[in-house]
Design a protein that fits this description.
The complex is a heterodimer.
Chain A lengths: L3 E4 L2 E5 L4 E7 L6 E6 L5 E7 L5 E4 L2 E5 L5 E6 L8 E8 L6 E3 L3 E6 L1
Parallel strand pairs in A: 2-11
Antiparallel strand pairs in A: 1-3, 3-8, 4-5, 4-9, 6-7, 7-8, 9-10, 9-11
Chain B lengths: L4 E3 L2 E4 L5 E6 L6 E8 L3 E9 L2 E4 L8 E7 L2 E6 L8 E8 L9 E2 L3 E5 L1
Classes of the chains: A mainly beta, B mainly beta.
Chain lengths: ~110, ~120
């Protein structure tokens, strides 16, 4: 079945360091979404990528969609303690809005 | 505007008891999703509805789980009888389906503990 894997599962960085999480799908994606879940919170939508090779930025966050549309990455420049949480990529499956969430990358940032 | 509303926020029950989780989606959204999150299995889609009709319930673990959406503003997820392995955070999410993949808005979740 469809699988969406993320690496690493967990990363602990010092504030100011960069961070990257990678999302890999076993199938070609039509588009991909990214969500962030703070500790004790719920997933919150960050962004959607649609085009092959697309790059989008949100302040210190840079999202990229692979040329083959089978992988994606999220890069955070100069992490802050507010970046703590778990980052999920989500693959839209066929049908009505169904999303398959990746395994998630948990980020811990020490001050 | 109010977001997705879930109740209760926390539920502690004993094995064998019936548990009912409730969700009110964002007004105007026509798709509703129930997820379960655990450390071991991550975020799993249990079932989703479009225009109040269940579209895919392949993620429902077993017959002990059932979900209903009697109208556009209310859904329930019921577990009967509950078991300790059902302990998890259950999220409800809604979206405005327009034929493409749109943003899902999650509720705060219900943390269920089955003793």
């Amino acid at each position: 079945g469809q699988q969406v894997m993320q690496i690493p599962q967990y990363q602990h960085v010092q504030e100011g360091e960069d961070f990257t999480t990678y999302c890999n799908s076993s199938t070609t994606l039509s588009n991909i979404q990214w969500y962030k879940q703070r500790p004790g919170g719920h997933p919150v939508f960050l962004i959607q990528l649609v085009k092959s090779g697309e790059v989008k930025k949100q302040k210190r966050l840079t999202f990229q969609f692979g040329e083959a549309k089978k992988n994606s990455s999220l890069h955070i420049t100069a992490t802050q303690t507010t970046d703590v949480g778990t980052y999920f990529c989500a693959d839209p499956n066929t049908g009505f809005q169904k999303l398959v969430f990746g395994t998630g990358t948990r980020l811990l940032v020490s001050p | 505007d109010a977001g997705v509303i879930q109740s209760p926020r926390h539920e502690v029950t004993e094995m064998g008891q019936e548990v009912t989780l409730r969700c009110k989606p964002i007004s105007g959204h026509n798709s509703l999703f129930w997820y379960r999150q655990t450390m071991m299995r991550g975020l799993e889609l249990l079932i989703y509805f479009n225009n109040n009709v269940p579209i895919d319930d392949s993620g429902m673990p077993e017959d002990r789980f059932s979900a209903k959406m009697p109208n556009a503003s209310f859904s329930t997820l019921k577990i009967q009888p509950s078991e300790p392995r059902d302990s998890a955070v259950y999220f409800c999410a809604s979206s405005h389906s327009r034929g493409s993949t749109d943003t899902q808005y999650f509720g705060p979740g219900t943390r269920l503990t089955v003793l």
